[in-house]
Each structure stands twice: as structure tokens, then as C-alpha cells.
Write a structure and sequence with these properties.
This protein is α+β, with helices and mostly antiparallel strands. The chain is built from 4 helices and 6 strands. The chain has one domain. The strands form 2 sheets. The chain has a 4-stranded antiparallel sheet with strand order 3-2-4-5, with helices on one face. It has a two-stranded parallel sheet with strand order 1-6.
């Protein structure tokens, strides 16, 4: 008489346990959150970097606007300006871009003549870190007809600034931009008399 193989019985007894373990494994979700985080982590990092980058760019853009408006306003308050005076003014005005200055900002201050037909052309111009506009050139910006008055000059300031941030290289794969090109312009009429002369 042969004895039954005990290993067969052990195998048969372990089958329900194996099925239970399999069902438990299929129901187990303890590692799912880790997997989800691993998939979403790169996107979270990119969004965080983009938020910081955009916030920094908006802050610097406000400063660029401030340079344009402040410069035009100050120039209108004097009857005449020399190149050295304008350089001193713009050295101070552009210093508010620190510590974001990689390449210096370029600023063009132009004083426009307005003829009887309302056409505005450059009377004289000063370029800071760039070339000035030639006398007789067209206005670098559109001037509203409401502020044009024949014989009354208009002071126009145009500021351009190239900004590179900490995350520029990271985000360039997404945005396609190697840097931010920030630009602003402002114009105003003279406060002392009708003209601003160049001396």
C-alpha cells in the first residue's frame, strides 16, 4: 500500500493562501501614490520654475516702465540738456534694474518737433548704450493726436532690456525663448516753455 505524497497535500492546502495573497496584491494601492508623484514631479518642478520666472520678469518689466516714464518726466522739467547730464540721469535711472543686469539696458531719449500738419520728427536725440536717432527721423513711437500741438515739442523715451533668469535655460525647451525682451516707451510735453534744447 502506497502512502499519499505529503507534498501534494501541502501544495493543495497552499493554493487558497496563494489566491488570497494574489487578491491582496491586486487590491494593494500603497505604492500608487509614489508612482504618481514620480510621474508628476517633473511637471511640478517646471510649473514652479515658470511661476518664479514669470514673477521675476513682471517685476523687472515694471522697472523698465518706470525708467521710461521717470526719464521723460525729468527731461521735460528742464529747458535744456547736455549729453553728460543725460548720461548722469540715465546712470541713476537704470540702476533700479540691479541685480538683474546681465546686459545693460538701452535707452533713447528723443525730443520731437511737431509741424502744422501734426507730423512729429526728431529734433535731437541721445542714445544710452545705443545709437541716437538722426535729426529729422520719424518718431520712434506713435504719438496720440490729442497731445500734438504745432510748435510744442514732445519728449519721448524708449527703453529696451534683455533679461536672462536662473530658469531661462530650463524653460527654453518649453517656451522657445533664450531670454525676455522687455521694452517700454513714454512721452510728455515740456513743462518749462514749449521746447527742450540740446546744449
Amino acid at each position: 500500500m502506497t502512502m499519499p505524497d505529503k507534498s501534494i497535500h501541502r501544495g493543495l492546502r497552499s493554493t487558497p493562501r496563494a489566491r488570497m495573497l494574489a487578491r491582496h496584491f491586486l487590491r494593494d494601492r500603497s505604492g500608487l501614490s509614489g508612482l504618481e508623484f514620480a510621474l508628476l514631479a517633473p511637471l511640478i518642478v517646471v510649473l514652479f520654475a515658470a511661476t518664479l520666472d514669470l514673477g521675476e520678469a513682471l517685476m523687472v518689466n515694471r522697472r523698465v516702465n518706470q525708467i521710461a516714464t521717470t526719464t521723460s518726466d525729468i527731461v521735460t522739467q528742464e529747458p535744456d540738456w547736455s549729453n553728460q547730464q543725460l548720461k548722469t540721469l540715465l546712470d541713476g535711472a537704470t540702476s533700479i534694474l540691479e541685480p538683474f543686469v546681465a546686459d545693460p539696458a538701452t535707452v533713447v531719449v528723443s525730443v520731437l518737433d511737431v509741424d502744422s500738419k501734426g507730423k512729429a520728427t526728431v529734433s535731437w536725440s541721445y542714445g544710452y548704450n545705443t545709437d541716437a536717432l538722426s535729426a529729422g527721423a520719424q518718431s520712434p513711437v506713435d504719438i496720440p493726436s490729442s497731445i500734438k500741438e504745432p510748435g510744442v515739442q514732445i519728449v519721448v523715451t524708449v527703453v529696451n532690456f534683455e533679461m536672462t533668469t536662473t530658469f531661462t535655460s530650463l524653460l527654453s525647451q518649453v517656451t522657445g525663448l533664450d531670454s525676455y525682451q522687455l521694452s517700454s516707451s513714454a512721452f510728455a510735453r515740456p513743462r518749462v516753455g514749449d521746447t527742450v534744447k540740446h546744449k
